[in-house]
Amino acid sequence: MKKNIKDTIIITLLALGIILPALASNVEIESAKQTYDAANNSTKFTGNVKVKMDDITIKSPTADIKMNSEGKLDVATFKPNAYAIKDNGVNQHELKANTMSLSLLAKKMKAIGNTTSIFSEKRKPMVTVHADSQEFDIKTNLMKAIGNVKIDYKDVKASSNEAHVTVDSKGNVKKVKLIGNGVIIQEPNEIKADNFLYNPVSNDIVATGNTYTKAKLEDGEVVDIYANYQQMDRLSNTFMASGKVKIIYQDYVAVGPKATFFPDKKTKKPNEIVFYGRTKIKEGDKEVEADKIVITMNPKNFTAEGNVKTSFANVKGLDSSLED
What we know:
Elements: H1 2-15, E1 27-30, E2 33-37, E3 42-53, E4 56-67, E5 73-79, E6 82-87, E7 91-97, E8 99-103, E9 108-121, E10 124-137, E11 142-153, E12 156-167, E13 173-186, E14 189-199, E15 204-216, E16 222-233, E17 238-249, E18 252-263, E19 270-283, E20 286-296, E21 301-305, E22 309-312, H2 318-323
Antiparallel strand pairs: 1-3, 2-3, 3-4, 4-5, 4-6, 5-8, 6-7, 7-9, 8-9, 9-10, 10-11, 11-12, 12-13, 13-14, 14-15, 15-16, 16-17, 17-18, 18-19, 19-20, 20-21, 20-22
């Protein structure tokens, strides 16, 4: 019976002057019922609707498909609780939403309302994206999530106003970009910035614009890092910061143009911060300025090299000392 329904739909579309091969993709539609609206040049499908185009399958209770002025399939709208999957046999991209539309000619998909995307590699979920709306360009493999974006990737949780996820032709996630009020949490560290770029292949996180990192050390102490730009190499556990860098650790407050947070060679845990360029560090009433300053967490100390200047605040003068 299902085969007859599908055949009937394809025959009907051909009768309306729609040449499926001309779309460069074959489109198959299955449903329990279909109604053609000649006035609006559209067809309504109801009951277990399933649409197949290339390696994409979309399912929903109902679907409305409109034709363009040339009589070709144009836009298909699926609702409610639409579900789509792009499956190349190895990797999958699933998309769920209240409403979903598919531009059959432009090969673009848009989902609105409680949207969720799941990118899987070899049937194993890798990246999950929640947002108010999502758009997927089938030709360029670019997904855009807009509004209240939340992303889960392995041990990383992220949020932002907007996100772009790029996958390659095989369906592997190659790049994740966060735009606006970005936050990335990878315990025990938290990073905030205007924008982020994450590369799953190299495992690098790049943060730009009003960046702030809260790095928690093994002993529970916190290192606060402020800068215009930050980069975290997760493989080597190294932080790099540049542009108006300010780092606070206990009673140390250091300011300079560039700094790198290195791990201990034995423990592989962050333990040493090296400032490059003219840098100042304050410890209580003492301020030291130098071309290079190295801060060590364990044991806690710092060293200064190159044109070193030291000053002390609130020091009593010689006359005051004599009066005492």
